[in-house]
Specification:
442 residues; mainly beta; 15-stranded parallel sheet; 32 strands
Length: 442
């Protein structure tokens, strides 16, 4: 086991570049200008100093950043089609369908092989390691502040990949965490999340991929935490929580830029993004794909009246959801679901057997607890709001109960366009996040 006590890195910093690829012109809009998707799969923007009139942007492929587009080269994307007009949020971030990835602009030192690491000092930097561990956390931080974990790959079984507590101002960036058990189904016990942490202020998690953990990221008592560009795969359980991201007792958290893709035959998720007893959490710019539990939601707020209230889900897509896509259950208050989209949900689970299924279906599967509703709450709840949202290919009425949502007419009948803030039309899902550290591109 490595025990580090110096506030220095253990390897040279791994140089990486964050870029994204495009398929259509609408994916190249910023808050100021509409760009163009070039045949290279990178975005360019108007620039009169280039002979072609276009220059590649800062998030193009590393070799093309700030390079003039060759004269005569035309964009491959289209500003028309089923991708909706890109809008900007109150933060100024574009809500376009932009995947995030890292490239390779310069040297990329190889990762150093390591056993588990225990942080022993404030301000320590852990970087450039490929950590393999069995039965203990890959990296442990307890009682130390200002720690940075970056440019690392962690393989774990039998314990979390990263575990921290009382670790104020912790930064985790450009990190890959993988549970190494590959057999389908849940792990032996729930204490095998990729990242688990508590009792920490000023937490930043950016550019992280989590795979096959009992959960992806579990946080408790981390108010004000910022999670950006989080890529998740194959949440395994057992639960609870069996979540891609779970936030508990943490007000004012922001999750901005995320995706979780779960194979229906291997994953065993519960609530993918679970926000428990937390006020004013923002969840935006994300994709949730794949859910096979009888009870569980895509994004779930669970609040107690008089103690917690408020939350925003904005520019989030869900597909292949069972029990529900977006929910405040059994109680939640002052929630807004803005520009949320749901399609192709699941009203009978046939991908895996559901032990003790309460409602068997006609195809020997299990009917999920909400009958496949996409926006849900509970009787007696009111004041939730759905705004400017879309549905397509759903197998059940999308909202229950309508009385919980102020944008619904409350009759529970067929849904005309505009009722509940929903319009039925086809749409193209935002692509999943792609975190590609430079060592994977060698």
């Amino acid at each position: 086991m490595w025990v580090l006590g110096l506030a220095v890195g253990v390897a040279a910093s791994v140089a990486c570049h964050r870029g994204f690829s495009c398929e259509q012109d609408t994916q190249c809009q910023t808050a100021q200008v509409l760009g163009r998707c070039e045949a290279t799969g990178s975005c360019s923007f108007p620039d009169d100093s280039c002979p072609s009139g276009h220059r590649y942007g800062e998030h193009a492929s590393a070799s093309l950043v700030d390079v003039c587009v060759e004269p005569g080269q035309s964009g491959s994307g289209s500003s028309t089609g089923t991708v909706p007009q890109v809008e900007t949020t109150s933060t100024g971030l574009a809500t376009s369908d932009e995947p995030a990835s890292t490239g390779l602009p310069g040297e990329c030192p190889p990762l150093r092989e390591s056993g588990p690491v225990v942080v022993m000092a404030d301000g320590e930097v852990i970087e450039g390691l490929r950590i393999t561990t069995d039965g203990v956390p890959g990296i442990s931080v307890s009682g130390h502040s200002g720690v940075t974990i970056r440019d690392c790959e962690i393989h774990h079984v039998g314990a979390p990949g990263i575990s921290f507590a009382a670790a104020d101002a912790l930064t985790i960036e450009n990190v890959i965490v993988v549970h190494d058990r590959t057999e389908p189904g849940p792990h032996a016990h729930r204490n095998q999340a990729n990242i688990v942490g508590s009792n920490s202020l000023g937490l930043v998690i950016d550019g992280v991929r989590v795979t096959r953990g009992s959960s992806g990221i579990e946080l408790a008592d981390t108010p004000g935490a910022l999670l950006t560009m989080i890529e998740g795969h194959d949440v395994r359980g057992p639960g609870p929580p069996a979540s891609f991201i779970q936030i508990s007792e943490s007000n004012d958290v922001e999750i901005d830029g995320f995706s979780c893709v779960n194979p229906l035959d291997t994953g065993r998720p519960s609530n993918l993004v679970e926000l428990h007893e937390s006020s004013n959490v923002i969840v935006r710019n994300g994709l949730l794909d794949g859910h096979n539990a009888e009870f569980g939601y895509g994004v779930l707020f669970e609040q107690t009246g008089g103690q917690h209230a408020g939350g925003l889900v904005e520019d989030v897509d869900v597909i292949r959801m069972t029990n529900g896509g977006f929910s405040g259950f059994p109680s939640a208050f002052d929630l807004v679901f803005r520009r949320t989209r749901a399609r192709d949900n699941i009203c009978e689970i046939v991908s895996v057997p559901i032990e003790g299924c309460s409602n068997p279906g006609p195809n020997d599967g299990c009917v999920p607890g909400s009958d496949g509703r996409s926006w849900t709450s509970a009787q007696g709840i009111s004041g939730l709001l759905i705004e400017d949202s879309r549905i397509f290919g759903l197998c059940e009425h999308p909202v229950w109960p309508e009385t919980a949502f102020v944008s619904c007419d409350g009759d529970g009948n067929s849904l005309p366009d505009g009722d509940c803030g929903l319009t039925e039309e086809d749409f193209v899902l935002r692509p999943p996040i792609q975190i590609e550290p430079c060592w994977e591109l060698r």
